[in-house]
Every structure is written in C-alpha cells, then in structure tokens.
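Retro notes (design track)

What went well: tokenization of the new backbones is finally stable.
What didn't: we kept losing track of which sequence belonged to which structure.
Fix going forward: every design gets posted as structure first, then sequence, in one message. First example under the new rule, 457 residues:
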C-alpha cells in the first residue's frame, strides 16, 4: 500500500498530498467494514492522529489491526478496498487498478498474444450501462454468429453486464477453445432481446489488416497502436506500393489507442523527419515536443477514416497528419481523449494505470472531451470509399498541373538549353518501358536527355 500511495503522489499528472491519499485509503477500509456490518470505530483513532509525517506508519498499523480484529477478512480484499478509494480520490476515469488477470489480459491485447475467445471489440458504458459491441473482428466466431456493431450485450453466460468493464467481460468471454459462450443481445430495431451461442476459438488479434483497392489505392486498417504496429504498417506500405498503390487510406475507426511511441513511429512513415507529432505536458516537464523520427518517407496522397471510438493515439495520429500536411479526416467526431497513461506493475502481479500527462495537437489544440471534427461527415460504409476515392484522385493530380505548372516550367527551361538537349518529366510516362522508348528515340536523333523527377521541384 505504501508503494502505491507514493507512486500516485509522485507520478500522477496532478499533485495530491500523501496525507489526503492516505486518508482515502482509511475511507476505503472503513467502507468495506461497514458493508460487512463490522465495527470500524477503531480506525477513527488512527485518522485523528494522521499527518504527513506519520501517515504511512499509521496506515500499516490500521491495516494490520483490521485483519487482527476480523479474521474473516482477507488481506487482498482489504487492500483492494483501500486502493480503489485512493484512485477514486483522483476523479479520473482513465486511472484504474488492474487485478493480476486484468493486467495480463490488457498486455495480451496490446501484444497480440493468442487466446481463446469469440473475437469482438466491446466497450463499457453503453446504453443504460450495458456493454456495447464496437465491432466484431474480421473472420471471427462473433462475426459468423451474427453479432453487429451497436448491439448491446445484456448478459454473458447469464451474468448481467450492467456496470461491467470491458476487462471484467473478458473473464466471462474467454475460456477453453471449443466451449460455448451464451450471449443475451439487444439490437436496435428489434423489440425483444435474443440469444446467441458462440463457440470459442483460438484467436490472435491482428493489429493491422490491409489490401489493395481498385487500381491505385492501398487500404490499411489499424486496430491498436501496439508494440509491433509501426513495423507492420511499414511492411504493408512496401507491399502495397509493390502492387501499384499510389495513394492510401488509413482506417482508424474503432481504434481506442495504445502506445504513444507507436503513434510517433507510424507518423514517421507518413511525415518528413522532424515534423511535430504532438506536444505533451506533465508535472515533471511543463512542455515536451515529440517529433517524427528519421525513417524512409515517401509522399503519397492519404485520407483517414475515424469515428466516435477513435481515441488517444488514434487522435494524435489523425491530428498530426491533418495539421502537418492537410490530410482529410472522413467519418465522425472522434472520442476526445487527450491524456497519457502509464502502467505500473505492482509486486503482487497486479498493476495500476495512472494518467501521467496531457497532450496537445501540433498546433496546440486540446481535444480532451471535444475530439476532432471530421473534414467530411460520413456515416454510411459505402460513402467512405466513394468520398475517399474522390479526395485521393484530386490529390494525385500533381501541383504543377495548376497555376505555375511544371509544363510551363519545362518550356521555359528548355529555352535556356542548347538545341541538342531535351528536357522531359518522368511523371509524364506511365511505365518504365515508355520512358525507355523515349530515351532510345532521342538517342537515335542525336539528342541528349534530361529527365526531371517530381521531388526536384
């Protein structure tokens, strides 16, 4: 307990005194005793003597005294009651205690560790306090069973999900491969709830899926900013370019975030080195600017898909791309989470997730509880692709076809050359073969050729 209280006192983004945090721990223990109809008067003498110098010693004494007075209490439940009250003192919905199982499940979701489940992304705090389906995972048992985005899960194996966190739900949804999960589902447009039996299957949540769309678009859907996300995006970009992709869609819908370092590594693939990725401020550092890192950067038109479940690292990424290079965001207003959490493992295998900083967009916009407004409001799935195709095609038109075109620049430059030189733009040739044909022809006419590449301008 002493370690956790000091951790909150030293690392949390806002300052809270040791005595106040310790007082909250006393309150938590007292609430537990009262809920069991046990006398808690003996705790008052400890609280009366409480001050900043003796708070930790008094808390330890009172903790041991409670266990001595009431042998039916376990050390872990008393500790948990105290911890939860300490964290509730912060009034921060993103700071939370994670049990050993919850911590393990969270790390699995970030690292794409195989597990047996049904493959569904859910969120707590849906309509009337029930769990809501954000999205069934591609090719998953949940999708095949008929679950849809927006469905409410009222019960899991006859256990009500009212007030349940998504981490708590994992304990009921995951289990031995081949066994069934019974879901009570409420769907908009249907009066009565219905039941689905879903068979658990060994799954590995893919952080990224991608494919080529049409003649020139590469589509990438990122579900989480995990450890390996940037490497996966880099590999996907290279493969899509090899298949002829000249423009890209980065789909961040239903992506709740992840590691800020992962977001910066991914931004480094889409922005020149040294571009501002985000600005972060904390108690220890008033303002720290994060820049994109040296990486192979190749410009290509890009659009972003986002919705109300795009949060945190997704919003950092979308905002940086829009503010640095004018990338259009299609979809809905994003979630609005502008805080950074760090997970601190505790000695017993549990962990605490603390808010340690807040961030701003490169231009200084605080999107906390406000989110990012899209450039184009889109809700229907088909409209995402129709509008993105239009935006990308417009961005594929080289800037030199507008005012001050490359064609005009080439004509002016040609006049400055001697007659035995010919000046051509590489972009005017659709294939390497046609480019070589032009070179061979010019050589046969005794002309010297200068080819201009787009990035020379």
């Amino acid at each position: 307990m002493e370690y956790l209280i000091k951790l909150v006192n030293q690392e949390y983004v806002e300052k809270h005194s040791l005595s106040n945090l310790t007082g909250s721990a006393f309150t938590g223990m007292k609430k537990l005793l009262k809920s069991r109809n046990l006398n808690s008067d003996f705790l008052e003498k400890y609280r009366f003597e409480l001050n900043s110098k003796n708070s930790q010693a008094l808390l330890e004494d009172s903790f041991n005294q409670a266990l001595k007075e009431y042998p039916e209490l376990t050390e872990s439940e008393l500790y948990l009651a105290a911890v939860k009250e300490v964290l509730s003192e912060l009034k921060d919905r993103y700071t939370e205690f994670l049990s050993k199982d919850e911590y393990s499940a969270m790390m699995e979701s970030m690292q794409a560790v195989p597990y047996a489940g049904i493959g569904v992304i859910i969120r707590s705090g849906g309509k009337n306090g029930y769990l809501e389906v954000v999205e069934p995972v591609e090719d998953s048992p949940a999708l095949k069973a008929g679950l849809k985005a927006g469905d409410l899960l009222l019960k899991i194996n006859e256990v009500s999900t009212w007030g349940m966190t998504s981490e708590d739900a994992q304990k009921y949804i995951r289990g031995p491969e081949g066994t069934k999960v019974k879901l009570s589902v409420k769907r908009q447009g249907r009066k009565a709830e219905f039941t689905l039996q879903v068979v658990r299957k060994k799954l590995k949540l893919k952080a990224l899926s991608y494919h080529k769309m049409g003649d020139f678009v590469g589509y990438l859907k990122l579900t989480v900013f995990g450890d390996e996300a940037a490497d996966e995006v880099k590999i996907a970009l290279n493969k899509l370019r090899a298949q002829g992709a000249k423009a890209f869609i980065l789909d961040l819908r239903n992506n709740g975030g992840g590691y800020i370092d992962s977001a910066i590594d991914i931004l480094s693939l889409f922005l020149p080195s040294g571009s501002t990725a985000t600005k972060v401020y904390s108690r220890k550092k008033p303002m720290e600017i994060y820049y994109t890192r040296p990486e192979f950067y190749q410009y290509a038109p890009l659009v972003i898909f986002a919705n109300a479940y795009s949060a945190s690292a997704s919003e950092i990424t979308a905002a940086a791309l829009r503010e640095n290079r004018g990338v259009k965001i299609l979809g809905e207003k994003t979630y609005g989470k502008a805080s950074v959490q760090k997970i601190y493992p505790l000695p017993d295998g549990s962990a605490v997730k603390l808010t340690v900083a807040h961030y701003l967009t490169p231009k200084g916009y605080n999107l906390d509880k406000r989110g990012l407004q899209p450039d184009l409001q889109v809700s229907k799935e088909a409209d995402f692709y129709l509008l993105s195709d239009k935006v990308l095609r417009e961005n594929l038109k080289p800037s030199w076809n507008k005012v001050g075109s490359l064609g005009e620049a080439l004509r002016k430059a040609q006049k400055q050359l001697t007659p035995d030189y010919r000046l051509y733009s590489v972009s005017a040739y659709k294939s390497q073969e046609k480019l070589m044909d032009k070179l061979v022809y010019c050589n046969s006419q005794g002309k010297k050729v200068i080819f201009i590449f787009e990035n020379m301008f």
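Added context from the reviewer: Residues 399-406 have pLDDT under 50 and may be disordered.
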